[in-house]
User: Fold AraC family transcriptional regulator from Pectinatus cerevisiiphilus.
Amino acid sequence: MVDTRDTINRCISFIEKNITRKLNLDEIAAHSLISKYYLHRMFRALTGESLMDYVHARKLSESISDLMYSDLHILDIALKYGFEYEQSYIRAFRQNFKCTPQQVRRGKISLRIVEKININDIYGVENSAIYKPFFVFRPKTYLVGKKTKIMNKSGDRAANELGTKFFYGERKKIKNILNENIYYGYTDWSNSKNGYIYYMPATQVENLQDVPEDMSGIEIPAGKYVVFRFVGFFRPEDLNGRKIGRVLVHMYTKWIFNSGYRFSVPFRFELIDSNIATNNYCELDIYQPIESEHKN
Assistant:
C-alpha cells in the first residue's frame, strides 16, 4: 500500500536536498518511489500547481538570497541553481516574479516567494491525504438521485454501496445528465444529532423537469464553498464512512474554527470524476457551503 503523505514527504525532501541541481520529473519520481504520472497528478491535485513549476519556483525563491547577500554574478547564480544560461534564468525569474534579478539586487522590489511545503500541513488518512482547502463559487446546480435515510449505526459502507449501485445502474434512467463521468454524493446532515442523515447518490442535470418517479430532484442555490480535495491510492468503490469521516472531523473540528468562516447550511456533497479515477488512484472533492462568521 502506498502511503500518500510519506510519498509527498520523500518528494519534497529530495527537492530541497538537491535544490541547486538540475532536476527532472523522472528523477524526482524515482526517489519518491512512485510513477511520474501519479506523482505529477497527485501533486497538482493537492496543491493546484504542477510539480515542476513548484521546483522552478523554489529554485528561483532560494536564489534571491544570493542576489541580495552575495557578490556572485547573475551567470554564477544561474549556474548554481541548475540553469544552463544566464538568459534562461533571467527569463524564468521575470515570468515568476514580474521583475528582473537586477531589480531585486538593487533592493527596491517586494516579492511573493515560494517556501518549502510544510509536511505538517498535509493531513494523512491511511493511504490518502488532504492539503489546504480551496474556495469555489458555484452557480445554481440541479441534482437527481436516490435519496435514502441512513442511520448512524448502519455501518461505514452504507453510502458507498448506495453510490456504487446508482452510478453503475440506476442513473441510466435519468435523461438530461450534464456529464456522465461526474458522480455527486449529496448529504443532508441536518438530523445528524438525531442519529441519521439523508444520503443521495446523484448526477447533475440541466433541470428538474424529468425526474424519474423513484428518484428525487434537488436544487442547490448558487453560493460559496470550501473544498477539501482527498487524494490517494484507492478505488472509489473502496471508500467508506470511516475514511471520509476522518476528513470530515478534520474539516469540522480543526479547520473551521480558525478559518473566519462558518458552515452556512447543513448539507455537503462529494464529487468524483470517473475519468481521473483508476483501479489504484482517486480524487474526491468534498464541497461544504460556507459564509463569513461575521455575516449578519
Remarks:
- The chain has nine helices and twelve strands.
